[in-house]
Design brief:
This protein has helices at 24-37, 52-63, 86-96, 100-115, 123-139; strands at residues 12-16, 44-50, 71-76, 79-85. It is globular. Strand 3 and strand 4 (79-85) form a beta hairpin. With 151 residues, it is an alpha/beta fold. A four-stranded mixed sheet has the order 1-2-4-3, sandwiched between helices. The longest helix is centred in the last third of the chain and has 17 residues, at 123-139. The protein has one domain (12-139): 3-Layer(aba) Sandwich (Collagenase (Catalytic Domain)).
Amino acid sequence: MSARKRRAPIELDVIDRFRPRTDRALVRSVVEAVLDHEDRRDLAVSLLLTGDEEIAELHGRFLGDPTETDVMSFETDGTADIVVNVARARREAKARGTTIRAEVALYVAHGLLHVCGHDDHAPKDRARMRDAESAVLAQLGLRHAQVDASR
């Protein structure tokens, strides 16, 4: 019988301003899966779950575009700062025929993968990111609709 490798604990801070609240266990499992996938368990993660209005304000303040978006991510002093628009996740889940859990998980994974060095502008990079997103969500047993190239 082989001994299980003991994994280092992750550092995760979550602020959830959206109602209804997002399942913390789901968020933690997505963050752990991405950090394991990327071999980055050393990366602290700060996650804000919010709605259209707040993410639009943050999008304008930090990226110069005052429109709502699905997810924003930055690396600040060794911490992955991720902002997820749960209101948009709810709309997209309904439109794509998936669950809000899977859509929120996708946004968390997408933002964290950006901080870990993935990009989705060039087709080859986008394919690599989509593969990583799919691997993480599949590992968690979450079905998600394939994201189009315009995302």
